[in-house]
Specification:
The chain is an alpha+beta fold. It is built from 17 helices and 13 strands. Helix 1 runs antiparallel to helix 3.
Length: 443
């Protein structure tokens, strides 16, 4: 979530079905108007305008971004999901639009905030608080967070859901998908039906703060004896479907450690990779949203703070077994076994592996080289990441053989990719092989 200093002035969230539908209509109308104006300018210059260029102008990109950010909820969240899960396959202009949605969030105005809290806590809700800051300390796609202190002395962070989010999820997802298709912003060769269905399911889960509170408490129990991590305590008496109360925990944004000493950066990323492996192989329960804002660092306590558990998923044993097989093969440097495990997980189909044998072999060679390396792996190396993107894009662009990975794999890889991105951002050096061997001692 954006920090307090970055949060713009409040803007009411459209909460009714008709008002949200009208907003989608205004997006389409605005894009069409922008195309007409842009086409007229090109004709006046003696140029023959191309439809794709008119659709993907900076002004149209800004128009779509601003309107989806205004809607918040599923409209904004879907943009975030698609940009993270399918970004390599989308036009760069669309990727830019959706990437902005990961940061652009506007809070509710005070009147709308008060209405939500009155519905949850009653008309005299302020009487139970010594202080309650009306300006949020963070705001994102589904809700915003406020600092509060109860009369019994509890220092809290209270997450409050935007009105209408939960009831508008299915229609918002359908409307965004239709908007993208009709505007040609989404290539017609990409079938994201399975991703859209999963987005609806995940969004319904993330909009249930009772469910998130249960996972917050669960992770608090799982990590209670590990001083390297801090999970805020859950306050069930003040929480419900639309409101989630937890301890307020001090910490700096995790990405701000880019200027920290090398040893501190290495330690923090090591802890995050270790936690990801523990979630996969021990807990079989994973918080799958790698948004940097979900992590902070408590310098005083030398511990990673974990904040958001709305995207928590239970991982089937078969998924953990397949990843264990993949990592054992990689640690052994066995390219053939790694290839077989990658197909079993669903990264590639048998047909893709045959058609793109050379590119796939190069990808596996690079991945295995990281696992067979003795000692720390330097995530500051950019040549490998760039090479993997190039090879992966060449396979993904072959629509005849490309397939969407299984949903569990897609979200697990989203988490792994996000942690790797953070490791690269912090230029960390981590003994990845040693961490994996800790959880796969027979590798």
């Amino acid at each position: 979530m954006p920090s307090n200093d970055d949060i713009p002035k409040g803007r009411a969230v459209p909460s009714g079905r008709l008002s949200r539908l009208a907003r989608f209509g205004s997006i389409a109308t605005g894009v069409a108007g922008g195309m007409i104006a842009g086409g007229a300018r090109e004709l006046a210059r003696g140029n023959r305008p191309r439809l794709g260029n008119l659709l993907l102008t900076p002004s149209n990109a800004l128009r779509v971004t601003e309107q989806l950010a205004h809607l918040r909820g599923a409209a904004m969240k879907l943009g975030q999901l698609v940009s993270m899960d399918a970004g390599e396959m989308l036009p760069p202009e669309l990727t830019d639009i959706l990437a902005r949605l990961r940061a652009d969030a506007q809070p509710m105005p005070d009147r709308q905030l008060n209405a939500v809290l009155t519905a949850h806590w009653g008309r005299e809700w302020r009487n139970q608080f010594e202080t309650f800051t009306t300006r949020p300390i963070a705001a994102a796609s589904i809700g915003q967070v406020h600092r509060a202190r109860t009369r019994d002395g509890r220092d809290l962070a209270v997450k409050i859901q935007y009105p209408g989010v939960r009831t508008s999820i299915d229609s918002d997802v359908n409307n965004v998908a239709t908007l993208l298709r009709l505007s040609n912003l989404l290539p017609p060769t990409i079938d994201i039906t399975a991703l859209l269905d999963e987005a609806k399911r995940q969004l319904h889960e993330e909009a249930d703060y009772t469910r998130e509170g249960a996972y917050l408490a669960r992770f608090g129990t799982l990590l209670a004896d590990d001083a390297n991590y801090r999970v805020p305590a859950f306050h069930a008496d003040l929480s419900g479907t639309d409101v989630l109360a937890m301890d307020h925990v001090e910490g700096v944004p995790i990405e701000s450690l880019v200027d920290a000493p090398q040893a501190e950066r290495d330690r923090v990323v090591t802890l995050l990779i270790d936690l990801t492996l523990r979630e996969l192989f021990v807990f079989r329960l994973m918080q799958t949203d790698p948004n940097f804002a979900n992590y902070r660092y408590d310098r005083a306590g030398d511990r990673v703070v974990l904040l958001d558990f709305g995207a928590t998923r239970t991982l089937p044993q078969g998924v953990a077994d397949n990843y264990a097989r993949l990592m054992r093969a990689g640690l052994a440097g066995d390219i053939a076994a790694t290839r077989s495990a990658a197909i079993a997980i669903g990264f590639f189909s048998e047909e893709t592996a045959r058609t793109h044998d050379a590119a796939l072999t190069r990808i596996l060679d690079m991945a295995v080289s990281m696992l067979t390396r003795e000692g720390p792996f330097d995530f500051a190396r950019t040549d490998m990441a760039a090479a993997l993107r190039i090879e992966g894009r060449s396979i993904a662009q072959d629509r005849a053989t490309w397939q969407l990975p299984p949903i569990d794999t897609l979200f697990l890889q989203r988490k792994i990719g996000g942690i790797a991105l953070l490791a690269s951002r912090l230029k960390a050096r981590v003994d990845v092989r040693g961490l994996i061997e800790r959880y796969l001692p027979d590798a």
